[in-house]
Design brief:
heterodimer, A: 112 residues, mainly beta, 0% helix, 54% strand, globular, B: 113 residues, seven-stranded mixed β-sheet, four-stranded antiparallel β-sheet
């Protein structure tokens, strides 16, 4: 079992829809939860990070962590074609020596 | 303010050769981490340099080595290239060793034939 599982997609939705992207993880000791966006042939770009459980909102993006279920989510409201990219979750904590453990990424396509 | 830069953008090498990739961190950052990203996969941590020393290392063989210079820039060296080394190599910089504040460069696409 991989430490971080993420559906590779692709996930295709119409412009303006609410997008839900998800990851599950296996080690309950992880503390920091990150979402990165990666455009084709570019490096990952940090969107948001959260510590422990709860929600965090930044503009159209909301990150949600449920430590009891070991489940993290990223919601995108009012999705735009420019949001089309691969979204990677990453987690870290003492058990990873505070280095990032990554999901494989979900490819998101927003159709105009 | 220049972000993280990497060179070269693309590289084609033959199996058995050696390669050096370069990274300049974001202004004000002192820590550089290197990652390997295979197609369709998340990045895999190779190692991290801080104060010119390798501080942490992922599960990569000794063929992968690196260096950090006094100006915080860094090099990644890979010896005896294998076909499986073909990947996107990413450099990330941060202030200190906090992985959740890493900024990534555009990467170097290495193809081994």
């Amino acid at each position: 079992q991989k430490e971080v599982e993420q559906d590779p997609g692709p996930l295709s939705v119409p412009e303006g829809a609410i997008v839900s992207l998800n990851c599950t993880y296996s080690n309950s000791a992880f503390q920091y939860f990150m979402w990165y966006r990666q455009y084709s042939r570019k490096g990952p770009e940090l969107l948001m990070y959260t510590y422990s459980s709860g929600n965090k909102e930044d503009g159209r993006f909301t990150a949600q962590v449920d430590k009891s279920s070991k489940y993290i989510s990223l919601f995108i409201r009012d999705s735009q074609p420019s949001d089309s990219a691969t979204y990677l979750c990453a987690i870290e904590g003492v058990d990873s020596n505070y280095q990032l453990i990554w999901g494989a990424g979900t490819k998101l396509i927003i159709k105009p | 303010d220049a972000g993280v830069t990497q060179s070269p953008t693309h590289l084609i090498k033959t199996r058995g050769q050696q390669v050096t990739l370069r990274c300049s961190p974001k202004s004000g950052h002192d820590t550089v981490s290197w990652y390997q990203q295979a197609l369709g996969q998340g990045p895999q941590f190779i190692f991290q340099y801080y104060e010119e020393e390798e501080r942490q290392r992922g599960n990569f063989p000794d063929r992968f080595s690196g260096h950090q210079f006094p100006n915080y820039s860094s090099e990644l060296n890979v010896n005896a290239l294998l076909l499986g080394d073909s990947a996107l190599y990413l450099c990330a910089s941060s202030l200190g060793q906090a992985p959740y504040e890493q900024y990534f460069g555009p990467g170097t696409r290495l193809t081994v034939t």
